[in-house]
Design brief:
Number of helices: 12
Structural class: alpha/beta
Radius of gyration: 23 Å
Shape: globular
Number of domains: 2
CATH architecture of the largest domain: 3-Layer(aba) Sandwich
Strand content: 15-25%
Length: about 500
Amino acid sequence: MASTSPASAHKDDPGKDAARLSKALVREASAKDAYKYLEKFQQLADSTGGDRVAGSPGHDAAAAYVYKQLQRAGYRVSYQEFEFVYTQTLAEKLTVLSPAPGDLQIKAMTYTTSTPVGGIAADLAAVPVDADGSTGCESGDYAAGGFTGRIALIRRGGCAFAAKQEQAAAAGAVGAIIYNNIDAGYGPLSGTLGDPAAARIPTGGLSKADGEKLAADAAQGPVSISFEIRQFQEKRSTNNVIAETPGGNAANTVMLGAQLDTVPASPGINDDGSGSAGLLDVALKLAKEEKHPRNKVRFAWWSATESGLVGSDHYVSNLTALAKQEIKLYLHFEMIASPNYGLFVLDGDGSDGANSQVVPQGSAPLERGITEFLGNRGLSPEGTPFVSRFDYGPFVDAGIPSGGTFSGAEAIKTPAQAAKFGGTAGVAFDVNYQTAHDTIENISMKAFDINTDVIADSVGTYAHDLSSLTRPAVTVQTDSGRAGVGVGVGATATK
């Protein structure tokens, strides 16, 4: 039922209006209602080759569908068109030839150059790690020589991946392998060089465990590998979908977003059709429940996330200085219906010690707000780090307070997490992550409903009242949820 509160009532008590709207949205929004949007995303993927990749008919149709729903609801809706380089990996292989033969799992960096068909065979040359943990970032790191004609093995940290492979190329390396410096339980490091123009040599990523093993072996003697990284690249255009309330104070803009595109050959129903559908359901319920929000509420469905957060980066990069100041917060909702789910809240106060981004001041209250909402429902979420992996990344880099929720990807659920959240220990939160099996049959409706309620509460609260952002939130009491997210398969980190 639509709110009958006149605009003039907003001068009285923003907290009261926020509580009223939050309660109404939480009551009306639901996974059951949002499910029909997941059904539509599945149908569009099925009818256009099995995915909704940016720049493809599947994504274009999904964007048009979201656009029309919002337009009918009375939002000011726009497409934000941009160009990006579409990539499709054709080969990812790494075989250790000696001294201990075997295959390792490697991930091609987005925008890498390619090896010849069949790859290249060469010895590894490990780059020394500096005392501060950085490595491979400066020419001096290669001063000892021995890189010509070899494949540089470089530890993550200290600078962008693009800089590491550029310095390795300048030292004569014919390829670069960058291994993770965190979370040994994750799969291979996957990231982006940021721009095809930055690529110098074929570059891939390894897990922390595999990289450290190769580095230790190389310290004992020659390590020979066969290495094949090949990637198709093509310039395409695509669109973000941006919708905002007609009214509300633009100087206090509240923004929420989710990813709409998928990886190739995956319908992407959990990743991130779930976030997109939950966001759409709440946006449509807001249009019915509140005609006069105090603050402008803006929603975004990002494209080309899987090509390196291109859509969200394009959006933030094209904001004026004033427009950035007007965005008081950004909340992101990623994979909110994982079948073996956990309940994870982005670590806005840094108390878990695992953030790989410098999180803006004002993010801690966002973590507190979500944690308190879930706590009042008898739920105990865990913190999860900001890792430059999702579309909050450009907002964080721009200094905009950020937060959100996540229900887990390729990381393995621990026994303690299984005891807390249910599900199966020793199994990934989403075993179907970025595969053809990420379908509507393989989601958790319970996690979907919980997180849709989080979106509803956040929208209802911040549409009227931002006062909680200025209340100190020194430490938010959550268990560390580092296993909830890693820079592993499908990640889009740049450094």
